[in-house]
């Protein structure tokens, strides 16, 4: 089970809800993924278009935990405000802290991220913080009492996969709270590798929503995450320099 | 009266006295929306008690797809 704060989940896949071709594909992809945690953003509403469709209203909200993000914030203060707005909906008390420091790389601002996390913990939120793969920053977030640490595998939406497995493994090893690999995952094998490293879960969006067949990719990601987790729990063999025969050497009917 | 809603100046009938009625006016009351008035974020239960006056700065936000 994945435990985040007071909540428990069977699925280790957290799914973003951005950029799907349409709501029907999105709904089906979410169902097939078996994800129990959905992320989304907070934005101004077009008040002159009351009938604009909203994906949340198409979902059975009883089935999912909602994880709004603070995307759009570039300071701790903005992130805290977005978090408070999302909680005022009465639908959620979890927040994904995302404080972007650079619009080109979408890498998080470490100082503002730390400040926002601290403030939101004080305000009683269940805080999941998106961070870089900086090992010491992840440590500081853990010390603050963050409910989950979410280091990026590579830049958001880049699909570059896991570019620093060593740092991620250090973060996983030192952490007392769940580590969720967030951002940059492109393929099911990327997700499986994240889980094999010992991550507690994977959060992804574009890899599914931007796939040629998002529903099929949602299933592939679910299976990859399950496979990676099982592999991690099973414990891999050590890597050897030379071959090691699988068949016995005794009793050969040759020579 | 004139309100600043989501950074746009918008004229509304004076009889719209509180946030609840404002949402009904724009037919937003059935949707998941969150309202902030002059920097104060409102719980849904406070919509009817929050009175509006000319020049108020209002943010109306909702949830959209995101990662």
Automatic annotation (TrEMBL), chain A:
<keyword id="KW-0784">Thiamine biosynthesis</keyword>
<dbReference type="GO" id="GO:1990107">
    <property type="term" value="F:thiazole synthase activity"/>
</dbReference>
<dbReference type="Pfam" id="PF05690">
    <property type="entry name" value="ThiG"/>
</dbReference>
<dbReference type="InterPro" id="IPR013785">
    <property type="entry name" value="Aldolase_TIM"/>
</dbReference>
<feature type="binding site">
    <location>
        <begin position="205"/>
        <end position="206"/>
    </location>
    <ligand>
        <name>1-deoxy-D-xylulose 5-phosphate</name>
    </ligand>
</feature>
<feature type="binding site">
    <location>
        <begin position="183"/>
        <end position="184"/>
    </location>
    <ligand>
        <name>1-deoxy-D-xylulose 5-phosphate</name>
    </ligand>
</feature>
<dbReference type="GO" id="GO:0009229">
    <property type="term" value="P:thiamine diphosphate biosynthetic process"/>
</dbReference>
<dbReference type="InterPro" id="IPR008867">
    <property type="entry name" value="ThiG"/>
</dbReference>
<keyword id="KW-0704">Schiff base</keyword>
<comment type="similarity">
    <text>Belongs to the ThiG family.</text>
</comment>
<feature type="domain" description="Thiazole synthase ThiG">
    <location>
        <begin position="4"/>
        <end position="248"/>
    </location>
</feature>
<keyword id="KW-0963">Cytoplasm</keyword>
<feature type="binding site">
    <location>
        <position position="157"/>
    </location>
    <ligand>
        <name>1-deoxy-D-xylulose 5-phosphate</name>
    </ligand>
</feature>
<keyword id="KW-0808">Transferase</keyword>
<comment type="function">
    <text>Catalyzes the rearrangement of 1-deoxy-D-xylulose 5-phosphate (DXP) to produce the thiazole phosphate moiety of thiamine. Sulfur is provided by the thiocarboxylate moiety of the carrier protein ThiS. In vitro, sulfur can be provided by H(2)S.</text>
</comment>
<dbReference type="InterPro" id="IPR033983">
    <property type="entry name" value="Thiazole_synthase_ThiG"/>
</dbReference>
<protein>
    <recommendedName>
        <fullName>Thiazole synthase</fullName>
        <ecNumber>2.8.1.10</ecNumber>
    </recommendedName>
</protein>
<comment type="pathway">
    <text>Cofactor biosynthesis; thiamine diphosphate biosynthesis.</text>
</comment>
<feature type="active site" description="Schiff-base intermediate with DXP">
    <location>
        <position position="96"/>
    </location>
</feature>
<comment type="subunit">
    <text>Homotetramer. Forms heterodimers with either ThiH or ThiS.</text>
</comment>
<dbReference type="GO" id="GO:0005737">
    <property type="term" value="C:cytoplasm"/>
</dbReference>
Automatic annotation (TrEMBL), chain B:
<dbReference type="InterPro" id="IPR016155">
    <property type="entry name" value="Mopterin_synth/thiamin_S_b"/>
</dbReference>
<dbReference type="InterPro" id="IPR012675">
    <property type="entry name" value="Beta-grasp_dom_sf"/>
</dbReference>
<dbReference type="InterPro" id="IPR010035">
    <property type="entry name" value="Thi_S"/>
</dbReference>
<protein>
    <submittedName>
        <fullName>Sulfur carrier protein ThiS</fullName>
    </submittedName>
</protein>
<dbReference type="InterPro" id="IPR003749">
    <property type="entry name" value="ThiS/MoaD-like"/>
</dbReference>
<dbReference type="Pfam" id="PF02597">
    <property type="entry name" value="ThiS"/>
</dbReference>
């Amino acid at each position: 089970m994945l435990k985040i704060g007071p909540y428990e989940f069977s699925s280790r896949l957290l799914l973003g809800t951005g950029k799907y071709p349409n709501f029907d594909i999105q709904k089906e992809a979410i169902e097939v993924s078996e994800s129990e945690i959905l992320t989304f953003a907070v934005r101004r509403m077009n008040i002159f278009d009351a009938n604009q469709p909203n994906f949340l209203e198409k979902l059975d909200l009883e089935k999912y935990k909602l994880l709004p993000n603070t995307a759009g914030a570039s300071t701790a203060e903005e992130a805290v405000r977005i978090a408070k707005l999302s909680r005022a909906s009465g639908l959620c008390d979890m927040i994904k802290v995302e404080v972007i420091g650079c619009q080109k790389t979408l890498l998080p601002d470490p100082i503002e991220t730390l400040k926002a996390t601290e403030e939101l913990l004080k305000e009683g939120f269940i805080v999941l913080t998106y961070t870089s793969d900086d090992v010491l920053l992840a440590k500081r977030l853990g010390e603050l009492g963050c409910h989950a640490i979410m280091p990026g595998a590579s830049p958001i939406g880049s699909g570059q996969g896991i570019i620093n497995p060593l740092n991620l493994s250090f973060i996983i090893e030192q952490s007392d709270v769940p580590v969720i690999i967030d951002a940059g995952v492109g393929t099911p094998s990327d997700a499986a590798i994240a889980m094999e490293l010992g991550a507690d879960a994977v959060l992804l969006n574009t890899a599914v929503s931007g796939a040629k067949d998002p529903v099929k990719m949602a299933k592939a990601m679910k299976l990859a995450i399950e496979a990676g987790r099982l592999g991690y729990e099973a414990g891999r063999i050590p890597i050897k320099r030379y071959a090691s025969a699988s068949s016995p050497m005794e009793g050969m009917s040759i020579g | 009266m004139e309100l600043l809603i989501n950074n746009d100046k918008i004229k509304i009938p004076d009889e719209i006295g509180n946030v609840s009625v404002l949402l009904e006016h724009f037919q937003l009351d059935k949707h998941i929306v969150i309202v902030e008035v002059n920097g104060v974020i409102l719980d849904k239960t406070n919509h009817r008690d929050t009175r509006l006056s000319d020049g108020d700065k209002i943010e109306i936000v909702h949830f959209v797809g995101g990662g």
